[in-house]
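Sample 3 of the quickstart, ligand NAP:
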Amino acid sequence: MRAVILSETGGPDVLRLAEIDDPTPGPGEVVIAVEAAALNYADLMQRNGTYTKGVALPTVLGIECSGVIIEIGTDVTGWMIGDRVCTLVPGGGYAERAAVSASQLLPLPRGVDLVTAAALPEASATVWSNIIDTCALAPGEVLLVHGGTGGIGSFAVQAGKALGAEVLATAGSEDKLRRCQELGASRAISYRTEDFAREVLAHTAGHGADVILDNMGASYLPKNIEALAKDGRIAIIGLQGGREVSLSLAALFAKRASLFTTSLRDRPAAAKDRIVTGVRRDLWPHLESGRIKPVVDRVFPLAEAAAAHRYMETGRHVGKIILRAGG
Ligand SMILES: NC(=O)c1ccc[n+]([C@@H]2O[C@H](COP(=O)([O-])OP(=O)(O)OC[C@H]3O[C@@H](n4cnc5c(N)ncnc54)[C@H](OP(=O)(O)O)[C@@H]3O)[C@@H](O)[C@H]2O)c1
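Result:
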């Protein structure tokens, strides 16, 4: 099969399309003919060498994909050859075939095509594990999503609204602020020209955000605490704004704040299985009803993975960028 191989870290041009052996399913696994894989911020970090959880090279990038089951290993129940699925993968998504754990498969939501479905596993699992599971967002609460038009953010804004929260979001351009509102944010805040903490407090009459989904880390932590409601929860999912910060515990105490850091990819298989079960139970119905719509910006052929990475690095995208292996 053909796959996009990372043999050395560097710029987008280190990505190479190569012929490698087809995968075979281990116990509990199926092999899917991959239709599409979606790009993630973590793929860029892995490619440029800034990903902290080292993955040995050479490797095939890609942590989520969609496709059709073509082979079933031992100890697999509930799935058949020909089923159309999407799934998290620990790596190996940028390929024509992938051996994946059957317990992490998700069926295509009604009305979502096979290519678009590649956009769903990582965003839905990240949103479920942080907003629903860890932060227990309740209907009527206020959710602040940073980067409301990103791959994760565009799903999070819609999910927050579908779960009955009031959603506020940050973004970096006029067009993206408008898109945040179209996705369901009642207030979109420019992280370039506005003080987001002040705007969140003003918009909520001083209450603040009950839950904050944060991709920035260090640079945003003081302002996130300022923007937080009493008993608020902050889930830090990314460190785009740095790793080191000096923190006032008194400020956290004043809000009775909870601060979480989470990651998805390196969780044990049983934890991921639990997340996927939660996604299917709590978020899939909203995809099927159309209250959450996958947002796809552009689709590139698998052979143009470097161009897709280059495009993602411009930061112009809204939603997910997809690599198409099938078709
Ligand atoms: N912990 C986990 O389990 C987990 C899982 C998946 C992803 N993540 C993390 O989630 C983040 C988003 O990933 P992605 O794949 O969705 O990437 P993406 O589509 O490239 O999104 C990046 C987002 O960052 C926003 N951003 C950039 N500078 C910002 C600033 N100063 N303030 C607020 N937002 C800013 C961008 O907003 P503009 O476009 O408006 O500039 C964009 O929405 C990454 O940090 C990634 O590592 C974590």
